Amino acid sequence: AGGTYLVTGGAGYVGSHLVLALVERGDKVVVLDDLRQGHRDALPPGAELVRADIADRRALEEVFAGWRFDAVFHFAALSLVGESMREPLRYCAENVSNSLRLAEAAVKAGCLRFVLSSTAALFGNPERTPIDEAAKLAPTSAYGDSKLMVERGLDWADGAHGLRSACLRYFNAAGADPSGRIGEDHEPETHLIPLAIGAALGTRPPLTVFGTDYPTPDGTCVRDYVHVTDLADAHLRVLERLEHGSCRYNVGSGTGYSVREVIEAVERVGGRPVPHHFGERRAGDPAVLVASSQRLREDTGWSPKLGALDEIVRTAWAWHSAHPRGFDDRNKA
Ligand code: UFG
Q: Atom of ligand 1 at shortest distance to CA of 207?
């Protein structure tokens, strides 16, 4: 503790939960965020916001000139799989160039610790499950490939510049700060849990279940939901781990739940039905994505504290029912 950290995209969903954890343990945090997706209200008192696009080179130079960072946490990115298939060039260009320029600026400033928000989308349709770090890297989306290119750039930067990087491949980030201060507020929202909760609360339309003919026990897709506060904790732990060199970790709870099981959990926790109907498969969705986080557990002592699905849904439900329109700074029609 007592360090100084740059968090890009720190006003976004996963980033803001890390910022909270850093500020709570007494670190100085500078957030670089243009608030296109992020929310000012997601930042705790004490976190400093530099409101700028990560692509703005001048802003980046000023940030590195203004503070001496112990590490950079990089969350700011385009992150919608479906959108990436319609605009692959934008996804590759923006995610890759923004991330590698950020790494370059960090190296120039002498900051040689870099933590990347990476994704299970690196693995495409995995050959076996649970997915460990030895699994083949074979993204099936431009989004996943853009993150893989960033990981590769960071590999090269380790050899050439001694830039130590940790890449955390998140499975399905979900839930909200257990004390209710911040939560998930995307626009557009594409994620299952907030959409199911919104359907139950009546703040969103009925849910469409994408596909019922997958080779899974109940025919719907199986995912590994990991609590966003546990994800934040994984970031703090890999920071220590960087003392030993660069590292790559898959981060999930290790348990898979089907779309139907998630709907049942929302109904159980919320005590209300989730209006839903069954539709076609969504293009690009693998049947089963479950992480092996054994390496992370062994190397850092991490384990999910809020890992149970009902616990994840309970914290998400509390946030959405208290903030039916999301953060106050968003003026939704
Ligand atoms: N789903 C529905 N209806 C919806 C939304 C989602 O049935 O309205 C289903 C999806 O088909 C999927 C599951 O719920 O089976 C979870 O979908 P999400 O969109 O919540 O999450 P994904 O697993 O598609 O995406 C996550 C991350 C991405 C990452 C991807 C890796 O959000 O950033 O995993 O495949 F790239």
A: 8
